Amino acid sequence: MAVELRKLDTEQRNQRTMQIDTLPTLEMLTLINQEDHRVAEAVKEVLPEIARAVDVIYRQLERGGRLFYVGAGTSGRLGLLDAVECPPTFGVSPELVQGLIAGGENAFVKAVEGAEDHAEMGRADLEKAGFCEKDALVGIAASGRTPYVLGAMDYARSLGAPVMALTCCRDSELSRHADITMAPVPGPEVITGSSRLKSGTAQKLVLNMLSTATMIKLGKVYGNLMVDVKATNEKLVNRAISIVCTATGVDSAQARATLETCDFRCKTAIVMILLGLDAQAANAALDAARGHISEALRQQSAKGDTPE
After folding, report:
1. Three-state DSSP class for 22?
2. Cβ neighbours of 113 (radius 10 Å)
């Protein structure tokens, strides 16, 4: 097993950081920062694969499916983190994007030893979640070899669901079990084998892209405003007001008053103001446009219904 590990991209020794333990603090941090700069370039190299994955995920969600991230350790935690941020940011159900981690939710805060070594547990966790062919799966493993993840991927493929791999190793085992492989390779870690560093950052960047681009395509963004944000606390109420003000040009008093008539739904309020509609008509316009504000405005303009 040790020989196999040494062959992995994530396990190579970084020649640039061989003396990091002897450096003054600022030089140490400068070296880490220099290595971090390599991460974005590694992600850039796999943008075409990420785009393919986004299009597949979007297609599945449009058909009523869900997105699942499956991983162990750091990879599993990153998937969970991306999943739990989707409801407050994009106003979606917690079931739409889900993260599964080897060892269960307790493994998010405390390592569960050996949990990642059992392929059958990956399958079992997907079965428990009711995973089906309408859903999409992203298996996450920096090393590209985690049995828990491979088990989940094989089960998803057996159902006919699309399966994607996110790894930081070339020609990994994960890639042989996936329809699409996203493999940014940022190079050897600052600390040999510590894949929570550059590899973890690369995975986080890709996960940001997968969820954000998919939600944009689903109409959760207008311009660059997150117009489906849930106003669940005072900070988010103020954010909703700011979004409506920015999108429409009205003052905060009018924005709040409009939001209060439509259960603080930013998209509805924006369409109400821009098209001079009541809440019911604005929601109907959004439904006809599949939730896309830009498309709702275009359709109303084509009908000649845009107010002078």
Report:
1. helix
2. 9
Joined together, the tokens standing for residue 173 give 């085992």
pTM, full prediction: 0.90
Contacts of 202 (CB under 8 A, 6+ apart): 39, 42, 43, 168, 184, 186
213-234 tens-digit pLDDT:
999 999 999 999 999 988 888 9
DSSP 166-233: E-SSTT-TGGGG-SEEE-----S-SSTT-TTTHHHHHHHHHHHHHHHHHHHHTT--BTTB-TT----S
User: Which pLDDT band holds residue 308 (cuts at 50, 70, 90)?
Assistant: very low
Neighbouring C-alpha atoms within 13 Å toward the C-beta of 33: 6
pLDDT tens per residue, range 59-99: 999 999 999 999 999 999 999 999 999 998 999 999 999 99
d(C-alpha 166, C-alpha 93), whole Å: 24
Task: Pick the catalytic residue from 85, 113, 127, 308.
Answer: 85
Residue of 11, 35, 49, 116 with catalytic role:
116
Q: Is 173 a known active-site residue?
A: no
Does 85 participate in catalysis according to the annotation? yes
Quote the tokens at residue 176: 């042989």
Query: Average model confidence (pLDDT) for the chain?
Result: 91
- Three-class secondary structure of residue 140 per DSSP: strand
